[in-house]
Every structure is written in structure tokens, then in C-alpha cells.
Amino acid sequence: MAVSPYDFDGYVAMDEQNNTQEKARRGFSRKKILLINGLAVLIAIICFVVLAVWLESKKPFFDAPLRSLLTGLGLLGLSIPPFTVGFMLQKKAAASPYFEEAFIRTGFHIIGFVCFFVGLICIGLSIYALIMRAIGEG
Questions:
Q1: How many structural domains are present in the chain?
Q2: pLDDT-based confidence at 132, cuts 50/70/90?
Q3: Which of 70, 71, 74, 87 is at 20 to 30 A from 46, Cα to Cα?
């Protein structure tokens, strides 16, 4: 007689539930994490190089929405590695009784959040500048 992964009342058996939880804990592989972080940093570097080399900065900020958009994309790219380090420390320190790791993890998360939200603000300002330019010309 074959044993079903389900108990008598339709509930998942404990060993099947533990396997599902273990798969959820594993997350991404190291190669995927490195690839995602590498692409994010590469996008940030490209955005900041374009800002520094090709775009002139003599105009006011609202007259160059592309500059604001590239700054926002660069900051969004820079926000991903601190988040990744924070989540890796959180996973590593889950069983640790020490609380110092929580402070370090929180620092990485704060850096990631600041970069993320400032990047979103820059992108929002570029959209605002484009809307104001369209209204002014209309």
C-alpha cells in the first residue's frame, strides 16, 4: 500500500512540510545572487559614467530630466548589494544568540533603504520634470 504525502484529513504530512520549508529557506543559489548583484552594480556604474562623461551639468536640474533618471537608476542599482548582505547576515545569524549581528544587519538595511528611496525620488523628479515640460509646451 502506497503512502500518500497527505494525512487522513487532507493535511500535508510533517516530512513533506519540512521539505517545503527547507526549500523556502534556501532561496537563490550563490551564482544567481552574484549575477544579480553584479548586474545591479554594472548598471549603476554605467549610469554614473554616462552622467559624468556625456551629460553636461551646466543646466538646472529640472531642465535635464535624463540626468535625474540616470541618477535614480544608479542609486537603485547601488541599493541591491547592501540589501543582499543584510539578508545574508540575517539568514546566517538566525541561530546565533548574539545581538551584535543584528546591528550590522540593520546598518546594511538602512543603507539599502536610503539608496532605494533616494533613487525613487530622483526618478519621480525626472517624471515630474517631463510632465512640467509637457504642460509648459502645451
A1: 1
A2: confident
A3: 87
Residue 89 — very low, low, confident or very high, per pLDDT cuts 50/70/90?
A: confident
Domain of residue 91: give its range.
Answer: 26-137
Residue 131 CB-density burial (10 A; 0-12 exposed, 13-18 middle, 19+ buried): exposed
Position 68, amino acid = S
* Coil/strand/helix, residue 120: helix
C-alpha grid cell, residue 42:
554594472
Whole-prediction pTM value?
0.72
In a domain, 10, yes or no: no
N- to C-terminal Cα distance for the chain?
77
Question: 136 versus 25: which is more confidently predicted?
Answer: 136
Cell of 123: 526618478
Domain membership of residue 97 (yes or no) is yes
Q: What is the three-class DSSP state of 9?
A: coil
